[in-house]
Write a structure and sequence with these properties.
By secondary structure, this protein is an alpha+beta fold. The protein has one domain: Glutamine Phosphoribosylpyrophosphate, subunit 1, domain 1 (4-Layer Sandwich). The chain is built from 10 helices and 12 strands. It has helices at about 10-25, 30-40, 75-85, 135-140, 155-165, 170-175, 210, 215-220, 240, 270-280; strands spanning about 5-10, 50-55, 60-65, 90-100, 115, 125-130, 180-195, 200-205, 225-230, 230-235, 250, 255-260. It has a 7-stranded antiparallel beta sheet, covered by helices on one side. A 5-stranded antiparallel beta sheet has the order 5-6-7-8-12, with helices on one face. Strand 5 and strand 6 (about 125-130) form a beta hairpin. Helix 1 (about 10-25) packs antiparallel against helix 3 (about 75-85) and helix 2 crosses helix 8 (about 215-220). It is globular and about 65 Å long.
Length: about 280
């Protein structure tokens, strides 16, 4: 039951406004409160208190931060994130997530963003919000579930996606393969470096149709988005309480792909560098 934030492009002032709303909504998400009361959990305090993390990409850096301390208790790094955003002079990509877990453990090894690489050298960072049937997914992949019982569900997801990518299958099909074993919803964000020296970002919204028939559940799990010339935004619905705007609801099964073409990289030949040093 995590919540996700996706921002990209150039307007850092607007981005900081969204991040401030992000802070407020994570501490008091009215949609979560209604949902938890429906489940009989009436003493809900310190919402989304199982950690927070982000991936910040600029033209010259790819930075990650994770902390399994609650977002609202980590004001130093919250302010640090805003400072980093404010100092960006060109395009950026920010993916962030806050966690309220339903089960399993909370540690540095079970915190987003997860980084993986496949045997054919796809590299990817992964965020998600879902309830996953790990045992069913293990059967689909013909792996022994008992070997993964003490692992987080992402370990099995990594296995599924990597195998698909290693067969050179469509990236969308690879990323969405796991939804066949989803109990409820499957919202994901992914930042991927492929075998063509290309960087891409992906965003997906998927929910079980039965959940969408329940108004309170629908309000809690849906993702909203807003697209402007200088900023694209997608977020869990709670932000609309703290930052008013004309948001669009992402359609069920909607899958977005973005080319991240602003990253500067340098490739060089070690042989050429060595010869140059000898000549000097």
């Amino acid at each position: 039951m995590c919540r996700i934030l996706f921002l990209k492009w150039t307007n850092t002032k607007k981005a900081i406004n969204y991040i401030n709303a992000f802070y407020k909504a994570w501490f008091n998400d009215p949609h979560l409160e209604i949902w938890m009361k429906d489940l009989g959990l009436n003493n809900m305090k310190n919402q989304h208190n199982h950690g927070w993390w982000y991936l910040l990409v600029t033209e010259n850096s790819i930075n990650t931060y994770l902390n399994w301390q609650a977002f609202f208790d980590d004001k130093l790094w919250f302010n640090n994130l805003k400072k980093q955003i404010k100092n960006i002079k060109w395009k950026f990509l920010l993916m962030a997530e806050l966690r309220l877990t339903d089960e399993w453990y909370i540690s540095a090894l079970n915190s987003h963003p997860f980084f993986f690489s496949s045997e054919n050298w796809y590299e990817w960072w992964f965020f998600y919000n879902w309830l996953l049937n790990r045992e069913e997914l293990s059967k689909m992949e013909c792996i022994k579930y008992q070997n993964f019982q003490k692992k987080n569900g992402t370990t099995i997801i990594w296995h599924c996606i990597s195998k698909k990518l290693e067969n050179w299958e469509n990236i969308k099909e690879a990323l969405l393969w796991a939804k066949k074993a989803i109990k409820s919803w499957y919202n994901l964000m992914c930042f991927l470096h492929n075998n063509k020296w290309e960087y891409k970002a992906y965003l997906n919204a998927y929910s079980k149709e039965k959940l969408l028939e329940k108004p309170d559940y629908k309000e809690y799990i849906k993702l909203i988005k807003k697209e402007e010339p200088d900023l694209f935004f997608a977020w869990s619905n709670a932000i609309s309480v703290y930052k008013k705007g004309n948001y669009k609801t992402m359609k069920n099964w909607e899958f977005l792909e973005f080319d991240i073409d602003f990253i500067n990289e340098s490739y060089f030949s070690a042989k050429e560098c060595w010869i140059e040093k000898i000549e000097l």
